[in-house]
């Protein structure tokens, strides 16, 4: 993060190909006097432009030509990103987190774009987070109410998607109960970008990105570092314990891909009935006992029982599940002093986590929700905001 002495803007190099400038509100009407390289897109997050410091423009590092950002046409899986892509998102999200702290947290970055949320499953956090993110970027947002749409008359998913895209939609944010549905949607679209907001048991990539962003933020606060300066090196060797219904959790699959890509050591803790039938190829260890695993964990990620996917039938009773695998008040002393407890929500208090534990500072579930807006702003920006100047590769 570079802060020019002229006071006009904060300029962040988010990747070799993308700069983002965050200028004070009201600092409009200035011209961009120069920029690092023709292959570099300069994106300003306020009305008008801000002056790019000449000293920065003249630097050898800034002038080096670079390829486009490692971000594809769609975001279906964390595997679409890899470590470089995850770092890209986290870096852009830091810039948007700064926007979020303003009195009027809105920028014109996606003005003129139209984003549609197509949620074929219930959602509170993810849908509202995406819609808030799009509006903060000045995009127009339409939300398909499946209960009152032509879907109830028998319209197929393909016809629904093609109908929505025909209205000039730029991006589709899709949640569906069937694994692979967003992949199919991406095949059917001709120009719209597709973001997977959760598909069946498959993946929920933006939630894993939110979790990574939040963990890095907490680590940075404890060490006194700027989160952006940490990059993704803070995940190297980090011991992450994922507890709960792994078998039916799309969040768990995205988390495993994200954390392992960043060099973390991932361990799963769950009764055998809630583990996937095969873990071949998963870069994880499995803990047979929660109590012994808690003390080693730097991060404990709790997952709820996916009752809507039948997971309740895989445990004798909720009481027995909580006794064996819940983060209860009795287990709280087993946590390391520096441990971070995450939960993607919705929490079922008294089952996977005790209510009093959920309200302690060690649990950052509410912070995850708050960070979800900045992270999803970053995802939408990287998919749509740089299209005209060295933006995402198709």
Structural overview:
The chain is globular. Mean pLDDT is 83; it is low at 1-18, 22-69 and 388-394. Strand 4 (114-119), helix 4 (125-136) and strand 5 form a beta-alpha-beta unit. It is of the alpha/beta class and 394 residues long. It starts with 9 loop residues before the first strand and ends in a 9-residue tail after the last helix. It has a five-stranded parallel β-sheet. Strands 5-4-6-7 form a four-stranded parallel β-sheet, with helices on both faces. It has a three-stranded mixed β-sheet with strand order 1-2-3, covered by helices on one side. The chain has three domains: 1-53, no CATH class; 114-203, Aspartate/ornithine carbamoyltransferase (Rossmann fold), CATH 3.40.50; 205-370, Aspartate/ornithine carbamoyltransferase (Rossmann fold, 3-Layer(aba) Sandwich), CATH 3.40.50. The chain is 33% helix and 15% strand.
How far apart the termini lie comes to 29 Å
- Low-confidence runs of at least 5 consecutive residues: 1-18, 22-69, 388-394
Helical/strand content category: alpha/beta
Radius of gyration: 22 Å
